[in-house]
Design goal:
The protein has 474 residues and is an alpha/beta fold. The mean pLDDT is 98. It binds nicotinamide-adenine-dinucleotide (NAD). Nicotinamide-adenine-dinucleotide binds next to helix 7 and helix 8.
Length: 474
């Protein structure tokens, strides 16, 4: 693997060397130079030059490059998955799943690249337009700044890079500083797939040093960001006049009705709560079960959670690896301790061994507790009871987040009721809020973000509409 920044089609040195570690063993698995201000500036200038090349590249050629990228990801699946498993601490089987999804994301982007189009406008609908012919089309924006989080270091990068290139833009990418290696591999693959130099540039380092200058730069036409609400807010305040997409956090709720398939609900909810150590923006954090099924659901959930493998991410049996850092494990340990002091009961887990936090089930919790109210982003799930479906909906919606929510029921009437009552960008029926297909519209309401990803929807946001009016007869 390359140990350099990727700028203007070249692998180049930067500032001080930064060691990237295996989050389970602490061993160094790669080294990358930190980008200096001059490196960020060169990356943006290179992207600006390449933006013209990308804007003039025909759709079939953009599609070919994206298809070749998907193929190469599939061919290098095991190598890329092992890098992801180690740099994040994610179970290898889930890392393989992430590579498969990223290949799918590039394939969808290749297909979408061929159907970016506009429509005609009947300008003769007003007298002044009687002799005009009108149509609109979509044009690329130019340079896109992409800033990504640690938890899906390949597929969340793919969700920005693939639509940006499909639409004929260029990119400056700043991956999360603790997990940049999958993005380095992706740049290698894009280079091998024939992407022109400068069309993607990778800079590495802490957000305030390397991300913030990209956000502020007037040469950058759009920022597409996935990460925490706190950083999202800073980006919105400092970006100036440019488009901004924000994919932020959540406290995903699940409602289990009395007519639910309890085995399926418990198994899916436990996996949705704990895989990737709960470090997923649509991880199951709050469950509201009907009183008549609460005990049964709880027993099944505990059974399903107890079956999950915990430990070394490189073992085939591991579902729950370490958290991204020991500080994060200490943080969630403090939150759980605080909840216990406020009356919560720990039904399972609640223990920490360095960065490894055991799958934890809490009950006797309420909405004033941090572990319910704020995004846990950890392997912790709160099991609650709701007296009625109306109460469950009201509690599930009692949050300023709004990414995805789920209801387990066989009653179609309840599905339509939930659609109106839940102010979330995505509603999942009979599966957990952790369900995502990469081509579906995906994004948060309220404080969970701005805009939507999913290839077609991201492409819309990564293009400007250009209206053309032609006066006839002159
Ligand atoms: P984070 O906000 O700490 O970091 C995300 C990225 O922002 C990193 O690359 C970081 O270096 C950069 N950054 C930090 N400060 C910056 C600044 N001042 N200017 C520019 N960039 C800056 O998030 P994280 O800890 O990596 O990820 C966890 C968060 O991401 C959670 O809140 C989670 O819910 C959210 N997330 C959301 C989605 C989604 O699709 N909605 C998906 C995954 C993760």
């Amino acid at each position: 693997m390359k140990d350099k920044l990727y700028i203007d089609g070249q692998w180049v040195d930067g500032g001080a060397a930064d060691e990237i570690r295996n989050k389970y063993t602490g061993e160094t698995i790669g080294v990358l130079p930190l980008a200096r201000p001059t490196d960020v500036d060169r990356a943006i200038a290179a992207a600006q030059r390449a933006a013209t090349i990308m804007a003039n590249m025909p759709a079939y050629r953009r599609a070919e490059i994206l298809h070749a990228t998907a193929q190469s990801l599939r061919a290098r699946r095991e190598e890329v998955a092992r890098v992801i498993a180690q740099e994040v601490g994610k179970g290898l089987k889930y890392a393989r799943g992430e590579v498969d999804r990223a290949a799918g994301t590039f394939t969808f982007a290749a297909e979408e690249a061929k159907r970016i189009h506009g429509e005609t406008v009947p300008l003769d609908a007003i007298p002044a337009g009687a002799d005009h012919f009108g149509f609109w089309t979509r044009r690329p924006l130019g340079v896109i700044g992409a800033i990504t989080p640690f938890n899906f270091p390949l597929n969340l990068v793919a969700h920005k890079v693939a639509p940006a290139l499909a639409a004929g833009n260029s990119i400056v990418l700043k991956p999360a500083e603790l997990t940049p290696l999958a993005a380095v591999l992706l740049c290698e693959i894009l280079q091998g797939a024939g992407l022109p130099g400068g069309a993607i540039n990778l800079v590495h380092g802490p957000g305030p040093d390397v991300g913030a200058p990209i956000v502020r730069d007037p040469r950058v036409a759009k920022i597409t960001f996935t990460g925490s609400r706190a950083v999202g807010r800073i980006i919105l305040q400092t970006a100036g006049i440019k488009k901004v997409t924000l994919e932020l956090g959540n406290t995903a709720p699940v409602i289990v009705c009395e007519d639910a398939d309890l085995d399926a609900a418990a198994e899916r909810a436990a996996l949705g709560a704990y895989y990737n150590s709960g470090q997923v923006c649509i991880s199951v954090q709050r469950v509201y079960a009907a009183p008549s099924v609460q005990q049964d659901f709880c027993a099944r959930f505990l059974g399903a959670a107890a079956k999950l493998g915990v430990g070394d991410p490189l073992l085939e049996t591991t579902d729950v690896g370490p958290m991204i850092s020991e500080q994060e494990a200490i943080r969630i340990d403090d939150w759980v301790r605080e909840a216990k002091e406020q009356g919560a009961t720990v039904l399972m887990g609640g223990t920490r061994e360095r960065g490894l936090y055991s799958p934890t089930v809490l009950t006797d919790v309420d909405h004033h507790m941090k572990v319910v109210k704020d995004e846990a982003f950890a392997p912790v799930c709160n099991l609650m009871v709701a007296d009625s479906f109306e109460q469950a909906l009201a509690r599930a919606d009692d949050t300023d987040n709004g990414l995805q929510a789920a209801v387990f029921t066989r009653d179609i009437g309840r599905v339509f009721h939930a659609m109106k009552a839940l102010n979330f960008g995505g509603l999942v029926i009979n599966d957990t809020p952790s369900f995502r297909a990469d081509h579906m519209p995906y994004g948060g309401n309220r404080q969970s973000g701005l805009g939507r990803e999913g290839l077609r929807f991201a492409i819309e946001d990564m293009t400007n509409i250009q209206m053309v009016s032609i006066r006839l007869g002159s």
